[in-house]
């Protein structure tokens, strides 16, 4: 009889030799493990006296969806900026293979260009406008291609931002809290859209978020950045779409909140 393997594997990486509950992912029969798109070793970043990143080691495999949690000011955006090639002041080994695209918390659309022109901006493609239109249709904004950015709702602007990132067919998509300003219903819709786009385009994704549920519902692995290092990792091997009330996710939520320093006593 086959032994059931755990669907969630949790490791405190500061005590990696003893902290790992198990090291066997459920789908251990998975064929070849894809090569890393991101390989980071001993990454440090200091601002003045403050060492924000203090020897970060990180790998993201091709097509893997990774979420990064951490307290405010723990250095999540700093790490993402390094991976995006936007921070020349960092030290350590950083290898990122292929094309990188970033979507930020605020959609950063150019206000004096229409949506189609925003998505096509700087695009190296035989027909940038046709590619941009196809990307807008993919995120459900085809009809709004002629609109001005300031006339879009928050959710629509965020979809446009995703279209602009994905039209570049990135190997690595960096998402810096792109859903945090959206209302709860729009956020659920965009989560589905992101999973759908991820399934179709297959980039590696690093999602920086404050939202533990968002991380658990979307990612293959959830990391916690603490005191300048990746201090915790949980591998979530549950099929999607996931339900937040799943027994294993309830346990994981509690583990992650504790790891983030949130006290659960007195909460319901
Ligand atoms: N260019 C900079 N100059 C000086 N300090 C900086 C700079 N960029 C970031 N920092 C500092 O580094 C620390 C980490 O910032 P970062 O934005 O990476 O944190 P974060 O985890 O993304 O926070 P939050 O969740 O609040 O967005 C903060 O204390 C911030 O003030």
TrEMBL record:
Span of domain ABC transporter: 38-252
Record GO terms (molecular function): ATP binding; ATP hydrolysis activity
Protein name: Sulfonate transport system ATP-binding protein
Domain of life of the organism encoding this protein: Bacteria
Biased amino acid composition, Polar residues: 12-26
Keywords, sorted A to Z: ATP-binding, Cell membrane, Membrane, Nucleotide-binding, Translocase, Transport
Origin organism lineage: Bacteria, Bacillati, Actinomycetota, Actinomycetes, Streptosporangiales
UniProt keyword annotation of Membrane present: yes
UniProt-annotated stretches for the region Disordered: 1-30
